Amino acid sequence: MSKIHAVITGVGGYVPEYVLDNHELSTMMDTSDEWITTRVGIKERRILKEPNTGTSYMAVKAAEGLFAKTGTKPEDIDLILVGTTTPDYIFPSCASIIADKLGIKNALAFDLQAACSGFIVALTNAASFIETGRYKKVLVFGAEKMSSITNYDDRTTAPLFGDGAGVVLLEPTTEELGVMDSLLSTDGSGSKHLMLKAGGSAYPASLETIQKHEHTIYQEGQYVFKHAVTNMAGVSGDIMDKNNLKSEDINWLIPHQANLRIIDAVVSRTGVPYERVIINIEKYGNTSAATIPICIWEAEKKFKKGDNIILTAFGAGFTWGAVWLKWGY
Ligand code: UT7
Question: Helix H segments across the chain?
Fold first, then answer.
């Protein structure tokens, strides 16, 4: 019997309407369009302004778009995996909320927390579920409301992050298409350099944690930068070497969008020419687990059946990895 692969058969995405550009940010804190553009490559980011809405709001809109495009019905879905660091609540899972809002009744649904690597970790997990033969239609989300954990008094982190959601539909195939290989890693010694310090079980919310801004992102930028460059560039090269893929074999490289200078390092390690690298950081900033599926959503029309695509990400944990995909349609 031929091997079952998990292939992407549809995509959806959503970004909020509100555009927070560098000029508006410069009126809120001591920063400038010039600094943000040259150091990071971001011009603007989207912010979810609708009151009392969380990550699930954007994820549901992304999935509704996917359903409309592919003709998928809620009752077809048997598994939902959500890569997110900003679920609507600590519990229940964002996946449960999304399932309910989409009218999906009979699916297993849960969240995966691997920070900015959340989508590639969720995709790899989803592929394993499909390869068992038991799951047939899986929604894999990367979705984040980063503005809910961003301190807009901190110029070292506030310009970096934005909100958005992307989703792919994954299905079984016996063709040589879909998720071909993944390399995923974690180094927990990196945890203290990029974290949200309070609100979990170690430091539950208190007046003190709120006064100390410990419910928003803490990042040691240069330390994280160094590890992001080494690990994302390294793992992208490793997955190509392991599978005998040369730069000319790669049709598209889709790196996590945290900093254009980190993307440059990945591009130079892989040798993939710039015109085959999907980059949208200037429009959306770092939407954490959502960057890669939003890139896939925006670039979908460029892809052809059989295209070799490398996805790569790095995030808090530290977590990082790469996925080699063959595009399915
Ligand atoms: O997505 C998950 C993982 N996250 C990442 O991959 C992010 C990795 N880190 C980075 O991308 C970069 O380290 C940052 C974009 C966060 C910072 O860039 P940098 O080139 O590492 O800047 P820096 O932290 O070394 O700061 C350089 C200078 C400092 O001033 P002094 O000490 O040289 O006078 C900062 O105070 O830039 C200053 N600075 C700013 N100036 C204007 C920091 N933020 C700003 C700002 N506007 N927004």
Answer: 22-28, 33-39, 55-70, 94-102, 118-131, 207-211, 221-242, 260-270, 281-284, 291-299
